[in-house]
Design brief:
By secondary structure, this protein is mainly α. Helix content is about 55%, strand content about 10%. The chain has a 3-stranded antiparallel sheet with strand order 1-2-3, covered by helices on one side. β2 and β3 form a beta hairpin. The protein is elongated, with a radius of gyration of 24 Å. GO terms for molecular function: DNA binding.
């Protein structure tokens, strides 16, 4: 644009560089995290894992991740944005699902890095930021919160014998405890 045109544009009250700015901020949907994740799912994930597992991970992305960060470019997604969406999942009581969503997002980012469409994986900066997956054990007036991954009591207490029994049971059933289950309520 010539200097004369710029002066005329400024005199009219418009920004001569505004058109360029608008064009540069518009994003091609193919550049979004959602597009990258769908490509990863079709080309990599769906071919490498059991179908039911792949479908569950795709469902997690669609229901929990895409509504918050799907429209962003992978390089625009920051660790605080990821942490915010993961804590929203935790707030619904689905702590293990939040951990799984973080893992799936990490796989997508690493795929994007390998293609040169992402520069880094923001989930790597969130180690230890989510609450540990746990369950609650009750005995009489005693209550304990047990970490599933370490099989240790995080909070509360149980009598010595019951503590040994609960922790032994947790170690034996650790793999099954990691599978997300609907929240169960007992009323007695």
């Amino acid at each position: 644009m010539s200097a004369a045109k710029i002066k005329v544009s400024l005199a009219e009250g418009s920004d001569p560089g505004g058109k360029k700015k608008k064009v540069s901020t518009e994003m091609d949907p193919a550049e979004s995290f959602q597009a990258l994740a769908m490509e990863w799912y079709e080309k990599v994930h769906a071919t490498q894992v059991v179908e039911a597992h792949a479908v569950r991970n795709l469902s997690r992305l669609k229901k929990m991740v895409f509504p918050y960060v799907g429209e962003h470019r992978p390089n625009e997604i920051t660790p605080p944005m990821v942490l915010d969406l993961l804590l929203k999942i935790c707030d619904t009581g689905h702590i293990e699902t939040a951990h799984r969503a973080k893992s799936v997002m990490s796989l997508v980012f690493r795929y994007g890095i390998s293609l040169g469409r992402a520069e880094r994986d923001p989930t790597r900066d969130l180690s230890g930021m989510l609450p540990a997956p746990h369950f609650h054990a009750y005995y009489a007036e005693h209550r304990a919160t047990v970490d599933i991954s370490t099989c240790e009591i995080l909070d509360g207490s149980l009598p010595k014998i019951q503590k040994k029994q609960v922790l032994a049971w947790a170690e034996i059933h650790q793999e099954a405890l990691i599978v997300p289950l609907p929240r169960l309520w007992c009323f007695w």
